[in-house]
Amino acid sequence: MANYRRGRINDEMQKTLAEILREVKDPRVSDAFISVTGVDVTPDLKYAKVYYSAMRGEKKEVYLGLKSSAGFIRRQVAQRMNLRATPEFTFVEDESIAYGARISGILNSITITDPDDANESEEQ
Hints:
Order of helices and strands: HHEEHHEHH
CATH topology: GMP Synthetase, Chain A, domain 3
Shape: elongated
Mean pLDDT: 87
Oligomer: single chain
CATH architecture: 2-Layer Sandwich
């Protein structure tokens, strides 16, 4: 039962964080076009890992911007979500989107040849 509740909290927190990140005034965060790909809250709701992906900006600068905005983000989450304890956030860059784009590019570059055409060209 607890895992079901944590899953709902994770999903709701992901939506809330996505909204809040649009309101952050730090240019390192607002200019980076950040999307929250997942949230993992500990069972005691004291800590949360926020997985994010940034389309623009330098990785280190985006991370430092998020880290410096953590207090504002936490206060906004506390106001918008009805939780006993508001978790402390740890931001982790999610490489899965970039990895997926790289794999997609590789798959798109593959040329498929018909085996019958290959046999005909060998015979000639």
